[in-house]
Design goal:
The protein has 505 residues and is α+β, with helices and mostly antiparallel strands. It has 17 helices and 17 strands. It has helices at 2-13, 32-40, 55-65, 79-84, 91-114, 119-122, 135-145, 148-154, 162-177, 199-209, 225-237, 248-254, 258-274, 336-349, 353-356, 442-449, 456-464; strands at residues 48-49, 52-53, 282-287, 292-297, 300-310, 320-328, 332-333, 359-365, 368-372, 390-393, 404-408, 416-417, 431-433, 437-439, 469-482, 486-489, 492-495. The strands form 4 sheets. The chain has an 8-stranded mixed barrel with strand order 3-4-5-14-12-11-6-15. A 4-stranded antiparallel beta sheet has the order 7-10-8-9. Strand 11 (404-408) and strand 12 (416-417) form a beta hairpin. Helix 3 (55-65) packs across helix 5 and helix 9 packs antiparallel against helix 13 (258-274). The radius of gyration is 29 Å and the shape is globular. It starts with a helix and ends in a 10-residue tail after the last strand.
């Protein structure tokens, strides 16, 4: 009890020393509970010996000094105060330094390991559980084992190019510090051969943020081939239609300020920290704003393909699940909501619609499910509130799920699947589904999924059979649907449209 009181007294009293009149340390919000437990097992100091910094103190300071690489403010972890204090001057400053270093490191390790914020409070549709992390136990164990620097580095996320995002943050902060880039004024559609007064501004804008420096032609207002190629590179990096033409969308993307890009990168660094540290030996990751799927095995990207995701009013949720079965030539059990809102109006317009699309109608009567002839139903008597039927589409060319789906159990009935409508993959923005994820190359994902249980030729034969088949995977594959508006692709950076307006939240 006396020791607990002494620690409390030290935390409160020594932090209001007159020696620090220019820094009101008493206003700092310290984690008294964790600090009390940390100092119970030490003789008043964790980071100092004879008022000298230990090797571990230098490692801790270095980790805090790198907080901006994670998008954090140094002041949140007392960095300026720590540099202001001189432990050799007095025991009071030594205690202040030791306590502030402990508190700053406790905060920062937790923020780096699992994020500064609770995703459930900021992202209403984020359903990937946030991992638990005990910063106090982590630091105590690292101090006992004597490998603090190694342990601190181990909590930095390694997946999805986290460190590339950190480097990009530093680069874009430099743009901000140097005044950003020029705004591009409104103009008509511009392409190669055109001349316009905004062209020099466009060239300057691209020279600031892209690696290849554009030379100014003899006619500065000319839209030349070199500029067109630079515009295409910009469009690819920003999720736009890659045509080398400067239209309203391309101009708007150019006019997003460097400071806004900095904040966007910080936000996506935080999202990356919300993901599990270990995504699995084999996993599939869908990035909703980027309309892209990647499959990874042993840290190596094996697949990358375009996807179609949910509409803004029927968004694909952010979830983690596992592919447990590959289903060939699947039946489509139409979700009730889609049956009422989407298919009922089509049947009302054309009484042959269900017949032509091989959609069967069922009704539960007396505890059993019976098929009903759609031609015996007066569809105009039904509406979105009164629809006592369930619908199922048979396998075939018109099946909404195409030739295969990848079943994964989740409360939202979200899964990955083929689609007969391949033309939509040519669009740069692909928010067309009702929540499920349509695949550009489903057969490639199928081969990846069953590679440890089925040869490519066996898989091809199963697909060619045309029969409905369920293949249980020997080892389920982790799936994560995510929402990153800044993404790393082959070491480069890609900005994506905020299709669900989540960044604004």
């Amino acid at each position: 009890m006396k020791k607990h009181y002494f620690i409390w007294f030290t935390l409160v009293f020594c932090l209001v020393s007159p020696a620090q009149a220019d820094n009101d340390l008493s206003s700092l919000k310290l984690n008294v509970s964790d600090l009390t437990q940390l100092y119970q097992s030490n003789n008043g100091f964790v980071w100092l010996k004879n008022q000298q910094l230990t090797v571990q103190a230098h490692d801790a300071l270095e980790f805090i000094a790198n907080a901006p690489l994670h998008g954090f403010k140094l002041s949140d972890y007392h960095y300026d105060l720590l540099n202001h204090l001189d432990p050799e001057q007095s025991k009071t400053q030594a205690r202040q330094f030791d306590l502030l270093l402990s508190d700053g490191l406790l905060k920062l390790t937790k923020h780096v390991a699992v994020g500064k914020y609770n995703p459930a409070e900021l992202e209403p549709d984020w359903h990937i559980p946030q991992e638990k992390f005990n910063a106090l136990a982590f630091i105590q164990q690292a101090l006992i084992e004597g490998n603090l620097k190694q342990q601190l580095n181990s909590i930095i996320p390694s997946a999805i190019g986290y460190q590339v995002l950190g480097s990009a943050l530093a680069r874009y902060q430099t743009y901000v510090d140097n005044g950003g880039w020029p705004l591009i004024a409104e103009a008509p559609l511009l392409m190669v051969g055109d001349k316009h007064a905004i062209i020099p501004s466009v060239r300057s804008r691209l020279n600031i943020s892209q690696s290849d420096n554009l030379a100014t032609p003899s006619s500065p207002n000319l839209f030349d081939n070199a500029l067109a190629n630079a515009v295409k590179q910009f469009q690819q990096q920003h999720g736009l239609k890659i045509d080398g033409v400067i239209g309203s969308e391309t101009r708007q993307a150019m006019n997003i300020s460097a400071q806004q890009r900095v904040e966007q990168i910080k936000l996506n660094l935080e999202r990356a920290r919300w993901l599990p540290k270990d995504l699995g030996q084999r996993y599939v990751l869908v990035n909703i704003p980027n309309f892209n799927l990647t499959a990874v095995e042993n840290g190596q990207q094996k697949l990358s393909m375009k996807v179609i995701v949910g509409k803004k009013h029927r968004p694909t949720p952010i979830i983690s699940s596992q592919i447990s079965h590959l289903v060939l030539h699947p039946y489509w059990n139409v979700p009730k909501r889609l049956a009422r809102l989407d298919l009922l109006p089509k049947q009302q317009l054309d009484p042959n619609y269900f017949y032509l699309k091989n959609i069967r109608v069922y009704q539960y009567q007396h505890g059993q499910r019976d098929e009903v002839d759609p031609y015996l139903i007066d569809w105009h008597e039904l509406n979105t509130r009164r629809f006592p039927y369930s619908l199922r589409q048979d396998p075939g060319e018109d099946n909404a799920l195409g030739q295969m789906k990848f079943f994964m159990k989740n409360p939202w009935d979200i899964y990955l699947h083929d689609t007969p409508n391949k033309a939509l993959f040519d669009d740069s923005k692909r928010n067309y589904s009702s929540g499920c994820i349509r695949l550009e190359h489903p057969s490639a994902l199928a081969a990846f999924s069953v590679s440890n249980m089925m040869t490519n030729s066996t898989l091809a034969e199963a697909i060619a059979s045309g029969k409905n088949q369920w293949h249980k995977l020997k080892t389920p594959i982790n799936v994560y649907t995510t929402y990153f508006t800044v993404w790393t692709d082959n070491g480069g950076l890609t900005f994506s449209p905020d299709s669900y307006n989540r960044d604004k939240l």
